[in-house]
Specification:
Length: 877
């Protein structure tokens, strides 16, 4: 384009000047010497003496260096040479002052690295589109989830194409090395077509695979293909044995496909029988969809809100009158990120404050250096250097530090990103976090921004220098301006430290309150694991019950084992499943309408479950061995369920039943136990309905072992060996202590408390250094004044109070500013705290007192130095 030609020409000229700078300088020097010799020859020809001719030639030329500068300016590369010169000068200075350079680079590396790593994590989890074609059009449907609703949406929906998935119990893979449990997902509808992801080998699952009687087929992840199937050239068509049943591999999904999460290795077709109304309207999962071309999110939301209430009439039983009125459509990315968004945003805000603190601290170091160079810079100005030239020199020094800090920050950021990926695997989309070009770009942008921030005050101070500074005048206007700038920056450091430390205090108190919560069971000295005997071998319920009883007998005989229990729903061991039920003597919602009674958790347990977890039995009795095979079906409820549906009544002896049970069949409640937590320590206890193992004993279960003191490290190996001795094809997985499972539920609060504690300590340290620096600089500048005060009779306590009072005043200004900022930001923390208000007076008072104490300690050494000033020595200077 014509408009770009001058720019391209200018760029080429600059590139040539930079690339051939040495050759151009030699040519310029030779040309000037030749021209000077020509002028000298002309003067000699006019009768001048050689010395006089040489002098006149130089006068006519105007000076070698001046002409060179003029030529360089016209050539356009003068600023490049000046920048290189300034960079060399700065490098030499930092080599001579390694302590200052090391402190500045280390501070910037920590600030930039932490901020860049957090920014990359937030971008990967919250901002970056999902790794699917046109991912912005993928949505999730809330308030509708049943298989029958999916079929209706496939028929009626005009705004989106719908599909569904459901997380299924893990399956046992045998015949491919050691038995292993694999996470599986059931797929309904055209899920892979909706997501827009084909298989890398073979094909994806289709509607035909979901019909009853279809061949059993599966999709496998590339990770499973590589690690368990030996990277066979063509795994498609190979048979896999899952839970003892053969399935044919239909395809292999790409390595980047992690749906719904990275732990999924197997995708199975969800069998949907349109003729089975009970299964159709009682089983389901999560429905997702893709907006059709030209359809907006609001249009799909309006359509689903109109369709969902009509589904109520299609259920085989009566549903609540308001069923479907809360149905909604939201972007799939937002649904996946979920509650992680506010946590990550708060962390990003905190690390941004740390980055700003680091920049202010380095800016103070450079400002102090610029102040100490007053004589040098003023001398440069007296010799003709412009303010812009002096300011550019100081800016290049700041930019060099920022560049070195950015290079060091890459190591910090890379380590932080790797740590987050490994330690926070439960974070949504954690598998998408990595050290790549995005991290380098984030570090580069933050380093550039840091260079601008740290250079602002030093550049203005250097550019404001004057010849008066070179003459050593005390109390100049520039010195007073520098002191004001320094005090403002230190007050800003204290304010930022106040905000970060308040956040650290709130999260620490919240974590302490959370860990003090009792889950309702004794979690110490308990080991848990998942086991799943091969289904074909133990297809008969009696065979499964016999297997579990024999295993229980062998485990009880192990040394160090105090109690053994089995359950299909382990507290803090995964998503608990609930169930509706009918209460005897009350309207049956299936035929008479009304609200269904609901148990948040429906757990099948062995008789020793309550004794193993030490859950108190409040009324009635626990299960006994006869309950597993007795004619009468029995159940136990917890205090929450009893209080919800039998308030003020005796629950023992009441009877309930589940939909689908034969008419006249009831389950009698024989016991009432204390309520427990099931997923999170900060949740309200859930209503639980416990059932004994009977003919419907689950294929897979969790074993719970309570050990005696010091036996836990040995129980894991002993458990594996015992299961292998009973059946070598039965895998044992998810071995963990119950203490670790409960503690893992507090991972998010622990992360916030840990990270903000590090932020707060960093802020306190930098704030203390800033206050100390201001106090020490004030003592050095005011030695003459202090000497006069001492000579006029001021005592040592008065001198010390003077220095301490000024430091405390500076801290007070920062604390007030920090309180105002914290009040404005504290609302963002409200949903992340447990048992603590954002305006918690204890935290605020402790943090304020801590900062005052730090300010006092930081000023004691300068105050002591001030009290030792000798007036005789000072007044002679």
């Amino acid at each position: 384009m014509p408009l770009l030609r001058p720019l391209r020409s200018r760029a080429r000229a600059l590139w040539r000047a930079l690339r051939h700078s040495d050759r151009l300088e030699r040519e310029l020097d030779d040309e000037l010497r030749a021209y000077t010799a020509m002028l000298e020859d002309e003067a000699r020809a006019g009768g001048r003496e050689p010395q006089e001719a040489r002098r006149r030639a130089r006068l006519a030329l105007g000076g070698f260096d001046q002409v060179k500068e003029s030529v360089r300016a016209r050539r356009g590369d003068r600023w490049i040479g000046q920048a290189i010169q300034d960079a060399r000068f700065a490098a030499r200075f930092f080599v001579r002052t390694p302590a200052l350079a090391f402190a500045a680079v280390l501070t910037l590396a920590i600030g930039i690295g932490a901020a860049a790593a957090t920014a990359v994590v937030v971008h990967a989890v919250v901002v970056r589109p999902l790794p699917y074609p046109d991912a912005g059009r993928l949505v999730r449907l809330d308030g509708v989830s049943y298989a029958g609703e999916l079929l209706e949406l496939e028929r009626r929906a005009k705004t989106l194409d719908a599909a569904a998935y459901a997380t299924m119990p893990p399956v046992s893979l045998t015949g491919a090395g050691e038995p292993v449990r694999l996470d599986t997902v059931g797929v309904a509808g055209r899920l892979f077509a909706v997501l827009g992801v084909p298989a890398t080998r073979g094909r994806v699952l289709t509607d035909a695979d979901q019909h009853p009687g279809s061949e059993r087929v599966v999709l496998v992840s590339e990770s499973l293909w590589r690690t368990r199937l030996g990277l066979q050239a063509d795994p498609v068509g190979r048979l896999l044995t899952l839970d003892g049943v053969s399935h044919r591999i239909a395809g292999v999904m790409p390595a980047t496909f992690a749906f719904p999460d990275a732990a999924t290795d197997i995708w199975l077709p969800a069998m949907i029988d349109p003729g089975d109304r009970t299964a159709l309207w009682s089983q389901g999962g999560t429905i997702v969809g893709r907006l059709r071309p030209g359809v907006a999110l609001a249009d799909a939301h309006a359509e689903i809100r109109a369709l969902a209430p009509a589904f109520r009439t299609l259920f085989p039983w009566q549903m609540p009158p308001d069923y479907g009125t809360t149905a909604a459509v939201r972007p799939l990315r937002d649904a996946i990120v979920g509650d992680s968004r506010p946590v990550l945003v708060v962390l990003l805000g905190g690390v941004t404050l740390v980055w700003l603190l680091a920049c202010i601290n380095v800016g103070l170091l450079l400002l102090g250096r610029a102040t100490s160079r007053t004589t040098e810079l003023a001398t440069r100005a007296a010799l003709g250097a412009t303010r812009g030239r002096i300011g550019r020199q100081v800016f290049v020094e700041s930019a060099l530090l920022a560049a070195c800090g950015g290079i060091a920050a890459m190591a910090v950021a890379g380590a932080a990103v790797t740590l987050v990926r490994e330690r926070l695997a439960l974070l949504p989309r954690a598998h998408e976090i990595g050290v790549d070009v995005r991290l380098a770009l984030a570090v580069g942008m933050l380093a550039i921004a840091a260079g601008g921030v740290i250079s602002a005050a030093p550049v203005m101070r250097a550019a404001a220098g004057s010849v008066a500074g070179a003459l050593g005048q005390r109390g100049s206007r520039q010195d007073r301006g520098t002191r004001r700038t320094t005090r403002v920056l230190v007050a800003a450091e204290v304010a930022l430290a106040m905000v970060l430390t308040i956040g650290a205090g709130l999260f620490a108190r919240s974590l302490d309150r959370l860990l003090d919560v009792q889950p309702g069971f004794a979690r110490a000295d308990v080991v848990t694991a998942g086991i799943a005997p091969p289904e074909p071998r133990y297809e008969a319920p009696a065979a499964r019950v016999a297997f579990y009883r024999e295993l229980e007998t062998r485990l009880r005989a192990l040394p160090g084992v105090d109690a053994v229990a089995f359950t299909d729903r382990l507290p803090f061991g995964g998503e608990p499943w609930g169930s509706v039920f009918v209460i005897e003597g009350r309207p049956n919602p299936a035929s008479e309408g009304g609200e269904w009674p609901w148990a948040d958790v429906r757990a099948t347990i062995s008789p020793a479950f309550f004794r193993t977890l030490r859950i108190p039995v409040l009324e009635g009795r626990a299960f006994i061995a006869d309950d597993e095979a007795g004619a009468e079906r029995v159940a136990i409820v917890d205090a929450v369920l009893a209080r919800t549906y039998w308030p003020g009544e005796t629950v023992v002896g009441r009877r309930v039943r589940f939909p689908g049970m034969p008419a006249g069949s009831w389950i009698r409640i024989v016991g009432l136990v204390a309520s427990t937590k099931w997923q999170q320590m900060d949740e309200e206890p859930r209503g639980v309905l416990y059932l004994p193992r009977r003919d419907d004993a689950p294929v897979s279960t969790s074993v719970v072992l309570r050990g005696t003191g010091g036996s836990l490290p040995m129980l894991s190996d002993a458990l594996r060996a015992t299961v292998a001795s009973l059946d070598p094809d039965t895998p044992v997985d998810r071995i963990a202590t119950l203490e670790a499972l409960v503690s893992g539920s507090a991972e998010q609060p622990r992360l916030l408390a840990l990270v903000f504690s590090a932020f707060g300590l960093t802020g306190l340290l930098l704030g203390a250094l800033g206050i100390y620096g201001v106090a020490a600089d004030g003592v050095a500048r005011r030695r003459h004044e202090i000497g006069v005060r001492v000579a006029l009779g001021a005592g040592i306590p008065a001198i010390r109070r003077l220095i301490v009072r000024e430091s405390l005043g500076l801290a007070f200004v920062g604390i007030v500013a920090g309180i105002v900022a914290a009040l404005l930001l504290s609302r963002a923390l409200e949903g992340l705290l447990f048992g603590v208000e954002p305006s918690d007076p204890v935290t605020w008072a402790v943090v304020g007192g801590l900062l005052v104490g730090i300010a006092l300690l930081s000023s004691l050494l300068p105050a002591r130095r001030a009290s030792r000033v000798d007036p005789l020595i000072v007044l002679r200077q």
